[in-house]
């Protein structure tokens, strides 16, 4: 196998072909070529790589990636992190490359997922034993009395009829007579 340059090595190569998405650069000392994508040609936006380089041009490039894909070694090169006049590394710590990688990451969209509050609704208060709230939100004082809902009038009548007490039945009838007046 041919000796390839080390990762992040800088060398001068010759432009072999220019495409819509970048330029292929001949690597000196081997038959391999690497791709300078149009996003790595300049720090400015490049729409047409043919406006930047022509076939046969000598350019300084930095090897920024090696990838095995379909049993072929693909090499990624960058021109924007190398001074094209002197060949000096403009990004010696590869910080700009890390920032470019972070920009490419995609973020998941969670807006379609619904939020449910079941955890709050299914809780039981440790202070009062009621459902639907936490102890820190409890309205009951420690050692205080518990309050329950007042039963409806119909429930009172059914309860009174079940006990068979005439006094309770008469008391239950009185509020209904008052309403009619």
UniProtKB/TrEMBL annotation:
CCHC-type domain sequence ranges: 125-138
Annotated keywords: Acetylation, Metal-binding, Nucleus, Phosphoprotein, Ribonucleoprotein, Zinc, Zinc-finger
Subcellular location: Nucleus, Nucleolus
GO molecular function terms attached to this record: RNA binding; zinc ion binding
Description of how the protein assembles with itself and partners: Interacts with PNN. Associates with the 60S ribosomal subunit.
Region feature (Disordered): 155-181
Record field: compositional bias (Basic and acidic residues): 164-181
Pfam families for this protein: S1
One CC-aspect GO term: nucleolus
Protein name: Zinc finger CCHC domain-containing protein 17
GO annotation, biological process: RNA stabilization
SMART domains in the cross-refs: S1
Source organism superkingdom: Eukaryota
CDD domains named in the record: S1_pNO40 (cd05686)
Organism in which the protein naturally occurs: Sclerurus mexicanus
Residue ranges annotated for the S1 motif domain, each copy included: 8-80
């Amino acid at each position: 196998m041919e000796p390839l340059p080390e990762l992040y090595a800088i060398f001068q190569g010759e432009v072999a072909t220019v495409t819509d998405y970048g330029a292929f650069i001949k690597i000196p000392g081997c038959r391999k070529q690497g791709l300078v994508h149009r996003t790595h040609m300049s720090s400015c936006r490049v729409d047409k790589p043919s406006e930047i380089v022509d076939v046969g041009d000598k350019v300084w490039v930095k090897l920024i990636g090696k990838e095995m894909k379909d049993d072929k070694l693909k090499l990624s090169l960058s021109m924007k992190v190398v001074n094209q006049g002197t060949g000096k590394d403009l990004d010696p710590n590869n910080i700009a490359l890390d920032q470019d990688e972070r920009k490419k990451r995609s973020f998941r969209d969670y807006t379609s997922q619904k939020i449910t509050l079941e955890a709050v609704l299914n809780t039981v208060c440790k202070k009062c034993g009621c459902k639907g709230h936490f102890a820190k939100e409890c309205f009951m004082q420690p050692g205080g009395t518990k309050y329950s809902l007042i039963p409806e009038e119909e429930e009172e009548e059914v309860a009174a009829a079940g006990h068979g007490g005439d006094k309770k039945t008469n008391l239950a009838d009185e509020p209904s007579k008052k309403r009619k007046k």
